[in-house]
């Protein structure tokens, strides 16, 4: 018994095309909602497929633009939602832009109106400018022509006779030797107040038996900052190291710790603190000058110099200066008392 086989192929059912439903809708939200209904997908399925939150998809279907994030994200949501529904993405984007204009871009004035006005009035403006230019040029030419005169000979054709007679009667002038300067323009002699030097120094310069005055000690050059000054403050330092040329200066304290280190430029200086046990390490000792209590103390003695040695020199120099000042003050006081005593002895006794 033969079996008959039905050769009719199975009919595959395809979901309806959502495109016409999207295009026939009045708004973008209605079109998306109709397209979703035609596709048979739920909001949850479309949210999982597009990776867009379901509340944003709902906002697009309800035309609730205020619930959407920034415009860039909103355009991306529209594109993804339209692609998932099988709707033309560019059409959906254009409808979204028309129905939700971008308020962040300022409106621009219409283009072409000003150009049309200029083109309409340009012949008149050009004509007026040309007329004014021709008038100005013509006026200047007329003024120049009216002021021009034909050349004529000079009225003075010969030297007047009176000039010749006056010139012949004048006597000749001769120059002699220069005269000396008047007395009021000579340099006056230096005026010296008599007795002033003896009053100030206690030694009469006219006395041949007077002891010669010892010359004062030479004044060393003082510290002159010619760049940045680093280190301790001025009232807490007696030693200043200044670079004459570029060089490296490193101050190390116990256990290899670095107190100060710098590539010094010419003119820069470092004030060493008082009471710190450190060692000065330089690249070239001849490059650095030492100032003790603000006065020049020579160059650094060696590449490695103990800071205590420099501070001791500064303290010794301060003590010597203080002692010299004390001696000078004591001598001046003794001379003053001697003059007072001599004046008292030479004074006549009071009349009885």
UniProtKB/TrEMBL annotation:
Pfam families assigned: HTH_25
Protein name: Helix-turn-helix domain-containing protein
Signal peptide: none
InterPro entries named among the record's database cross-references: Bact_Cytoskel_RodZ (IPR050400), Cro/C1-type_HTH (IPR001387), Lambda_DNA-bd_dom_sf (IPR010982)
SUPFAM superfamilies from the UniProt entry: lambda repressor-like DNA-binding domains (SSF47413)
Matching PANTHER family: CYTOSKELETON PROTEIN RODZ (PTHR34475:SF1), PTHR34475
Top-level division of the source organism's lineage: Bacteria
């Amino acid at each position: 018994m033969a079996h008959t086989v039905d050769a009719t192929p199975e009919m595959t059912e395809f979901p309806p095309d959502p495109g016409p439903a999207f295009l026939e809708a009045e708004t973008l939200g209605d079109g998306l909602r109709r397209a979703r209904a035609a596709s048979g997908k739920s909001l949850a399925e479309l949210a999982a497929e597009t990776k867009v939150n379901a509340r944003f998809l709902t906002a697009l279907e309800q035309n609730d633009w205020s619930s959407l994030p920034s415009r860039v994200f909103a355009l991306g949501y529209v594109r993804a939602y339209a692609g998932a529904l099988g709707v033309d993405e560019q059409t959906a984007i254009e409808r979204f832009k028309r129905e939700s204009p971008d308020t962040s871009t300022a409106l621009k004035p219409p283009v072409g109106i000003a150009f049309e006005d200029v083109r309409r009035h340009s012949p008149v403006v050009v004509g007026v400018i040309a007329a004014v230019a021709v008038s100005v040029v013509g006026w200047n030419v007329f003024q120049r022509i009216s002021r021009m005169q034909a050349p004529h000979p000079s009225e003075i054709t010969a030297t007047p006779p009176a000039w010749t007679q006056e010139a012949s009667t004048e006597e000749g002038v001769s120059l002699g030797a220069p005269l000396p300067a008047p007395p009021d323009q000579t340099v006056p002699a230096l005026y010296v107040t008599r007795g002033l030097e003896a009053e100030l120094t206690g030694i009469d310069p006219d006395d041949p038996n007077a002891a010669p005055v010892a010359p004062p000690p030479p004044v060393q050059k003082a510290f002159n900052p010619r760049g940045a000054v680093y280190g301790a403050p001025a009232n807490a330092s007696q030693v200043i190291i200044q670079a004459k040329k570029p060089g490296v200066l490193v101050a190390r304290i116990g256990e290899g710790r670095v107190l100060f280190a710098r590539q010094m430029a010419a003119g820069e200086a470092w004030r060493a603190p008082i009471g710190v046990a450190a060692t000065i390490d330089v690249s070239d000792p001849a490059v650095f000058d030492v100032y003790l209590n603000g006065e020049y103390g020579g160059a650094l003695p060696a590449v490695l110099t103990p800071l205590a040695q420099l501070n001791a020199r500064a303290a010794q120099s301060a003590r010597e200066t203080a002692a010299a000042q004390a001696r000078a003050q004591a001598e001046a006081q003794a001379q003053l008392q001697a003059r007072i005593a001599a004046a008292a002895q030479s004074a006549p006794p009071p009349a009885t």
